[in-house]
Design goal:
The protein is an alpha/beta fold. It is 41% helix and 11% strand. The strands form two sheets. Strands 5-4-1-6-7-8 form a six-stranded parallel β-sheet, with helices on both faces. Keywords: Carbohydrate metabolism, Hydrolase, Magnesium, Metal-binding.
């Protein structure tokens, strides 16, 4: 049960939840593959590899294209040079800015917990002018652990003033990594159904599902007191 006497901290995943970054990631990946004489991958294929961080992304690319360990290491380094400030093709999902503003106006401490490296995370938040709304930003390289390990999410909640051992808080995400991480903390998980998830929603632990950010503030108010 999550009962908050004050507005609950709400932490968000980033890629596939607040932003559609797959087109930029796809462009960076294919630029590197082409440079090394490897056939490019489709957007849908690359999107299906997103969520576990850069190492998981390139492990999946290597498996799909037959790269050896040395090629994978070199290509991942080239990718990071491009990825650090890749924002041209990235978009906020519709209604995100308004939903974040409504939650902030209601006093909810807001944070980010993503497997995206911190540098690219800051770059994209700055690009959209929303970095200042978040009291904490935990990236994929902020801690030794990444999601689905619960440590990054617990750190985000603790930074927002919640008890890291038993946070009275909510997590919003889109993927299997997010659902498993929230369950491990544990905190209620709200899942955005238009993200990068591959598993059917009914097979993932979640408190609620939404496909429109206009509905999120109301969902959070309802489930914070549930």
């Amino acid at each position: 049960m999550t009962v908050c006497m004050a507005p609950c901290p709400v932490v968000f995943d980033l890629d596939g939840t607040l932003i559609d970054s797959a087109p930029d990631i796809h462009a960076c990946v294919n630029a590197v593959l082409t440079q090394h004489g490897v056939a490019p991958l489709t957007l849908d294929r690359v999107r299906s590899f997103v969520g576990g961080g850069v190492e998981v992304l390139w492990a999946r690319i290597a498996s799909a294209t037959g790269l050896d360990a040395e090629q994978r290491r070199d290509m991942m380094a080239s990718f990071m040079v491009r990825y650090h400030d890749a924002t041209r093709l990235t978009r906020l999902f519709p209604g995100v800015t308004e939903a974040l503003g409504a939650l902030a106006d209601r006093g909810h401490p807001l944070g980010i917990c993503t497997n995206k490296p911190l540098g690219p995370t800051h770059a994209v938040l700055d690009h959209f002018g929303i970095r200042q709304i978040f009291g904490v930003v935990i990236g994929g390289d902020s801690l030794p652990e990444k999601k689905p390990d619960p440590a990054p999410l617990r750190a985000a909640f603790a930074a927002l003033g919640a008890d890291p051992a038993a946070p009275q808080a909510l997590y919003v995400g889109d993927s299997e990594f997010d659902a498993t991480c929230a369950a491990a903390v544990p905190v209620p998980f709200l899942i955005y159904s238009r993200g990068y998830r591959l598993t059917p929603i009914d097979q993932l632990p979640h408190r609620a599902v939404f496909d429109d950010f206009a509905h999120l503030p109301g969902l959070i108010e309802a489930h914070a007191a549930a």
